[in-house]
Amino acid sequence: MSNPLGAKVIHLSIPLILITIGALPKSSRGQSEAQVYFSAQELFRKGAYDEAITEYLRFGWLYPQSKLVWCARYKIGLSYLAEGNSELGRKYLEGILNDERSPFNVKYEAQLALAKSYMKEGKSNLAELEFNDLLTYSLRDDQITEVRFWRGWSLLLKYDFERSSDEFAKIMKGGVENFYSQQASLLARESKGGMNLPKRSPQLAKWLSTFLPGAGQVYCGEIGQGLISAILNATLGYVTIKAIRDRRYYEGAGLYLFVWSRYYWGSRYNAEKFARLYNKRKKEEFLNSLVVKYLKNLPPSTCPLSPR
């Protein structure tokens, strides 16, 4: 398992050593500030995140007063997140948020990336807190549209289809024409479909299997499980009742207490469980269909201070 602290020390040490001993690669000598930055950008674009981190760190050592240092820090955070190192990635992003010197537009991008990192890990409540905090700032209309778009998705991930639809509808009222508003106009309508998904009642499933073991499973679409439960309970019930009718009371009591009751009450429990799983599966299938349809070809992560 990799050591995040060790990786960070190595990345910080490389540019410092190179600068100290004057042994920077020949390809970097004589390069302008923009050229050095763009070399890091190219590595980031290609997905070579480890090398990109080193280049961004080297840029910070070479040009500590450059306004692009904030973009470099932002991209380092994104690189760590892309590598799956959420701890270091968030540390860099939070460092930008907590530094009074960082430009507001970079803070905006950093907090947005932070919120989306929570969404990716299924921490929708934390993501929503970040989005709510962003909306308290004086944002441009296009930024408000972007934040509301992702807040709508954070609500979708919690299966809160009604609130997510309302959030996407607010974007349509904002009057901004961009990628996010176009997607929101469709999502406002389609996310409502999550409120009308087929459902199975856990209580009804449980009571169906109470009166007829296996019926609740069949109701939830688990026909094989229902048939197995019905056959087992019918067989064990017959053997138990026959033992009692034959006055083999101890045997009958033992069969009921230690065998039949286990399968009978287990059938009730499983029927309720299958109903909940059915509902969850339908929500996941619906949500996955929206992800595949709408989260393709998203605008790339950019830094507002990057040279054009």
Describe the structure.
With 308 residues, the protein is an all-alpha fold. It is built from 14 helices and no strands. The radius of gyration is 29 Å and the shape is elongated. About 4% of the residues have low confidence.
Write the layout of secondary structure elements.
Layout: H1 4-21, H2 33-45, H3 49-62, H4 68-82, H5 86-98, H6 104-120, H7 124-134, H8 141-157, H9 161-173, H10 179-190, H11 202-211, H12 215-219, H13 223-245, H14 249-294
Helix pairs in contact: 1-3, 2-3, 3-4, 4-5, 4-6, 5-6, 6-7, 7-8, 8-9, 9-10, 11-14, 13-14
In short, what is this structure?
By secondary structure, this protein is an all-alpha fold.
The count of β-strands is: 0
Q: What's the order of the H and E elements?
A: HHHHHHHHHHHHHH
Q: Sum up the overall morphology in one term.
A: elongated
User: What is the fold named in CATH at topology level of the largest domain?
Assistant: Serine Threonine Protein Phosphatase 5, Tetratricopeptide repeat
| SSE class | mainly alpha
Please tally the helical runs, counting DSSP H or I stretches of 4 or more residues: 14
Which CATH first-tier class of the largest domain would you pick? Mainly Alpha
Return Rg in Å: 29 Å
Q: Work out the strand percent.
A: under 5%
Q: Mean pLDDT, nearest integer?
A: 87
The CATH architecture term of the largest domain is Alpha Horseshoe
How many strands, what sense, and barrel or not for the largest sheet?
A: none
Instruction: Kindly report how far apart the N and C termini lie.
Output: 39 Å
Number of domains: 3
Helix content: over 70%
Low-confidence stretches: 16-28
